[in-house]
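Duplicate of #3305? Posting structure anyway:
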């Protein structure tokens, strides 16, 4: 992805920090950087959107290509307490070119005489080097024209993509075992691989035990489920607290229309990052 999802990067940092074995032994490889040029400006991607042509010094994470999918993203309750109300209806997708889309419910608005739920949409397009953000109803109803606006931010037309799957580095690089630092003991385990929605899943569990100032033991664990076939973390959390991740995974190329603002939306330019 050109603009990495913040929830993925945030979780990666938490995963590394939660295991002393990870922080001590994990080595980030020096991977290649490949120059990528966006297509020439067009009516859909006008030249005014780009801050400059660029000299190839701008670096971004390389997109994951040729691994398309669609899925539902959200809270997954523990199996012992699961009910339909525990699930969300967020949507996540990636096409074969590495374009990604993330939808999340963000509130509601009045349209005509009815109150309608709305969702925020974020699209990252590593082909054009642009990202779009907009809001739309969760049902098929026309928004007022004043609300039909999408914001676009673009990097230069020349960008170097760095080939590095950080989650794979973490999953492959974490050794099993137990370490103790101060009053905290950390155990890391590679669990038996499994299948979810026909996708192979590698599972890493990190368990921490800590003795507090009163001498009482506190123990907690987290799991990370990673799919090498999708190059995606599909689940994270614990049996006690529940998981967040992907369900209803379908390995298919999404509709290309999903990765550009809908017809009738006004597109406004925002400054580059």
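Output from current build:
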């Amino acid at each position: 992805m050109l603009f990495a999802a913040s929830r993925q990067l945030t979780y990666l940092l938490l995963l590394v920090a939660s295991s002393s074995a990870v922080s001590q032994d994990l080595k980030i490889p020096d991977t290649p950087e490949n120059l990528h040029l966006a297509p020439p400006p067009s009516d859909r991607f006008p030249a005014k959107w780009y801050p400059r042509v660029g000299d190839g010094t701008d670096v971004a994470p390389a997109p994951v290509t040729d691994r398309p999918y669609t899925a539902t993203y959200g809270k997954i309750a523990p199996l012992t307490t699961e009910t339909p109300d525990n699930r969300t209806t967020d949507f996540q997708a990636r096409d074969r070119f590495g374009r990604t889309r993330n939808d999340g419910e963000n509130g509601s608005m009045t349209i005509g005489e009815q109150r309608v739920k709305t969702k925020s949409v974020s699209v990252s397009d590593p082909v054009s080097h642009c990202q779009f953000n907009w809001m739309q109803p969760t049902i098929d109803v026309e928004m007022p024209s004043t609300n039909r606006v999408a914001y676009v931010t673009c990097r230069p037309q020349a960008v170097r993509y760095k080939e590095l799957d950080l989650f794979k580095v973490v999953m492959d690089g974490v050794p099993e075992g137990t370490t103790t630092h101060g009053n905290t003991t950390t155990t890391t385990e590679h669990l038996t691989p499994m299948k979810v929605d026909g996708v192979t899943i590698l599972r890493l569990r990190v368990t921490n035990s800590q003795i507090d100032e009163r001498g009482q033991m506190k123990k907690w664990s987290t799991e990370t489920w990673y799919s090498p076939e999708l190059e995606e973390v599909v689940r994270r959390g614990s049996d006690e607290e529940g998981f967040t991740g992907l369900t209803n995974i379908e390995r298919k190329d999404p509709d290309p229309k999903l990765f550009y603002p809908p017809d009738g939306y006004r597109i406004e330019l925002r400054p580059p990052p």
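Confirmed duplicate; merging threads. The two ends are 15 Å apart (CA to CA). Residues 1-6, 20-24, 79-87 have pLDDT under 50 and may be disordered.
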